[in-house]
């Protein structure tokens, strides 16, 4: 007859199966598993929504880009014939009408994005620096500055569309009737001036976001730095150049990236301002892809254009993050 002995504890005493020390180990492991699994459990609804709202449509769009999907196959798009890379070849063939139109739209979007992001950042930074000092009415003025950002996009853009009207718009009334800066009322929603109108609306509704982010970043700069610089004889511009802008570099790096992605992908502003057919001067790539997909009913080509746009934004974002991270590491070493 064999006998079994209970395992000995750390102090040499035997521990029975029903003793508190024996049950303490499994309980600890169970508690640790619960603590580790709780964050993933809380993130599960967001992950499922991300999967259904973004990832699944993205995969379907990539599959559609390899098909000859036109209006004849809308009822059952899975029966559309495969075209391999023909949609991509057509999109990047800049000597053909489709590729030439896409290249023109891409260049217009790049110019629009650079100007809009630059102006939004500049106006927002200047306004935030001016609002840094305490004065009477500063809170009210800050609230007024944030009104364009708080307004719904459709309400704001529709208001600007009425203001840009040729005959009874406020813009022509001020520029032509009141100030006499133009010889005749201008067309702002068609022709070459449509690019200026789109840029004005984009900057008007975008700079308050830059103002809000920069203003939050300014709160983390110690006032002692400005006081020490003032004692050393540094002027306002020197303080901004030597203290404010270098301290805001991490904030500006994130701000510029977010503004770039928002502006480059902006669809609501040109769609509400011009409708389905944007003028050639304001033919952003988002509107161009929409026209290729839902106006001409060529979903295969439109999907290929969307995939190319996604790849471009991923490359630009990756290069930007690589350069900024390398710059941060270099600054940390210094």
TrEMBL record:
Ranges annotated as spanning the membrane: 37-66, 106-131, 143-163, 195-218, 247-264, 303-323
Keyword annotations of the record: Cell membrane, Membrane, Transmembrane, Transmembrane helix, Transport
Protein's organism: Streptomyces edwardsiae
Matches recorded under InterPro entries: ABC_transporter_permease (IPR051393), MetI-like (IPR000515), MetI-like_sf (IPR035906)
Similarity annotation: Belongs to the binding-protein-dependent transport system permease family.
PROSITE patterns membership: ABC_TM1
One protein family per Pfam: BPD_transp_1
SUPFAM superfamilies named among the record's database cross-references: MetI-like
Localization annotation: Cell membrane
ABC transmembrane type-1 domain segment(s): 106-320
Region (Disordered): 1-28
Protein name: Sugar ABC transporter permease
Membrane topology: Multi-pass membrane protein
């Amino acid at each position: 007859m064999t006998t079994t002995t209970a395992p000995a504890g750390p102090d040499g005493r035997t521990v029975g199966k029903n003793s508190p020390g024996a049950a303490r180990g499994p309980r600890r492991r169970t508690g640790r598993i619960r603590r580790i699994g709780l964050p993933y459990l809380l993130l599960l609804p967001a992950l499922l929504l991300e999967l259904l709202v973004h990832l699944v449509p993205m995969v379907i769009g990539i599959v559609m880009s390899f098909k000859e999907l036109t209006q004849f196959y809308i009822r059952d798009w899975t029966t559309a014939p495969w075209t391999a890379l023909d949609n991509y070849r057509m999109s990047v063939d800049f000597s053909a009408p489709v590729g030439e139109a896409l290249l023109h739209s891409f260049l217009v979007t790049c110019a629009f994005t650079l100007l809009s992001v630059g102006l939004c950042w500049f106006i927002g930074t200047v306004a935030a620096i001016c609002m840094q000092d305490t004065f009477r009415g500063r809170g009210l003025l800050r609230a007024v500055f944030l009104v364009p950002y708080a307004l719904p996009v459709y309400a704001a853009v529709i208001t600007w569309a009425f203001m840009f009207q040729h005959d009874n718009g406020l813009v022509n009334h001020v520029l032509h009737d009141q100030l006499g800066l133009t010889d005749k009322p201008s067309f702002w929603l068609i022709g070459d001036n449509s690019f200026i109108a789109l840029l004005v609306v984009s900057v008007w509704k975008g700079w308050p976001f830059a103002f809000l982010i920069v203003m939050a970043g300014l709160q983390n700069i110690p006032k002692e730095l400005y006081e020490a610089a003032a004692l050393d004889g540094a002027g306002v511009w020197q303080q901004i150049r030597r203290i404010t802008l270098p301290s805001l570099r991490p904030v500006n790096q994130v701000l510029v990236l977010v503004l770039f992605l928002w502006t480059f992908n902006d669809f609501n502003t040109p769609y509400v301002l011009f409708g389905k057919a944007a003028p050639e001067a304001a033919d952003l790539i988002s509107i161009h892809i929409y026209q290729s997909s839902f106006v001409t009913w060529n979903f295969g080509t439109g999907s290929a254009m969307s995939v190319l746009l996604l790849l471009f934004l991923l490359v630009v974002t990756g290069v930007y993050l690589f350069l900024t991270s390398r710059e941060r590491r270099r600054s940390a070493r210094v």
